[in-house]
Amino acid sequence: MATEKLISDDGIRNDGRKIDELREIKFDIGVLKNTDGSAYVEWGRTKILVGVMGPRESHPKHLALADKARIDAFYRMASFSVEEWKSPAPSRRETELSKVIREALSPAVFTEYFPRTSIDIFIEVLQADGSTRCAAISAASLALVDAGIPMRDLVASIAVGKVDGQLVLDVQDKEDKEGESDMPMAYMPSKNAVTLLQMDGQITQEEFARSIDMLKKGCLEVYRLQRDAIEAHFKVSESSNEEA
Amino acid sequence: MRVVNIPVNFEQRQLVVPGTLLAEGRYQPGFNVYQDADKYFASIVGLADLRNDLISVIPLRGCYLPQPGDIVIGKVIECIPTAWMLDIRSPYQGILFASEYLSKPLNPMREDARKYLDVGEMVIASVIAFDRTRNPSLSCRDHNLGKIQKGTVIDVEATRVPRIIGKKGSMISMLKKETNAQIMVGQNGRVWISGKSRDDEAYVAAAIKKIADEAHTSGLTDRIREYLVSNRR
Fold it and tell me: What is the CATH code for B152-231?
């Protein structure tokens, strides 16, 4: 068990945040040249780059679906992304997260508009400090927007954990490892629809209900930041034209 | 029962993102708008637009989807015995059958399709049929269509093509008049330019790039005319 306390007596976490405070989140859109859409996110110390290719002809062809686009996510952690060097070979965890992220984003995309094609989402974790799947999902939905792919809504994602007996929003690496539980959620705010909900550790039913409330509030905050990022990106490219 | 329209939720040409609630009530959902019960949402990033009761979103990003009748500029990427596969900057490759390109039948036993069109060559063609279950089929059976023999082809974003053409062709006819170049705009975001020299073509290409970059600003046609006049050599 942890020797030092993760939350001080006056409710401040070890990185200076309150229990329901997010880390500083910065989204950037359109950062790559050779993809159809891209986004970069700095989520506290977590740094993730996402590139989207497609819709494009599906390769290999036999995997193409006759009635909708096939979405594929490739979650990958750089060897230097974690404290201890990570083997560059794909790990079980990366394969699992690729699947989870794909399934969290698929409900938002109008895949039926592009039958027989594929949409590939490449997620490169450059630095990991907890909540990489949440940051990846949030950034990937911006990259999909940048690629001009029709979607029902943006997907915002955040995690709630239980640390020192208290529920905390936006779990960082240390809290994830030493805390009692971790519960990430992905959410489409204007549809009020949950696309991903996972949990490990143990919490009570009452804590679960409270967690859901915190998660929705957190997702709405992320959603606001996502919309701001889109507006900043596309407005800037408009107004710089005005001056030219 | 008469449904009273609730005023729309956006200003004309406002930037919207996927999932933005555009309106409630009885409207027509246009391009890039989807309907959920009596609510209308944007499905793409773009500028919201209301005309009569038709709500649509003018896309800022997106790929080209072929429509029958469109003129496209394709690049040959594969030769098969009696047809060519063309990259038309779309999720779906175009297919150009020999019967739609040559005036005589092509016997694959005697002749190689490559003799007429080889990989890497560019073709101006029209889309004759497309419904997403099959690849778009193309045709060169019209004047002005066929293999590109001279000039320059540039790529622009497909979402900018309506601006390069302009209202009732105002922009493109101004470009042709001011530059004396031959210009053909493919709906798929490729533009063919043929002028007296390479420099002339580069001059037109720069103007077209400028239109694409400033696509959603007003007074663009006049600004581009000034640009052309001031940069003329």
Answer: 3.30.1370.10
Nearest CB to A55; choose among B61, B63, B216: B63
- CATH class of the domain at B71-147: mainly beta
Report the SS3 class of residue A15.
coil
Question: Predicted confidence band at A237 (pLDDT cuts at 50, 70, 90)?
Answer: low
Pairing of strands B46-51, B28-29: unpaired
Interface ipTM > 0.95: no
**Any chain B CB within 8 A of the CB of A59?**
no
Q: Dump pLDDT digits (tens) for A7-46.
A: 998 889 989 999 999 999 999 999 999 999 999 999 999 9
Helix (H) or strand (E) holding B33: strand B33-36
Q: Would an 8 Å CB–CB cutoff place B220 in contact with chain A?
A: no
Tokens 């309150």 correspond to what residue?
Answer: A18
Taking contacts as CB-CB distances below 8 angstroms, the residues of chain A near B18 are: 108, 145, 150-154
Residue intervals of chain B classified under CATH 2.40.50.140 are 71-147
Q: Does A115 touch chain B (CB under 8 A)?
A: yes
Per DSSP, helices labelled H in chain A are 92-105, 132-146, 173-178, 205-243
Contact A154 B159 (CB under 8 A): no
Q: Where in chain B is the domain with CATH 3.30.1370.10?
A: 152-231
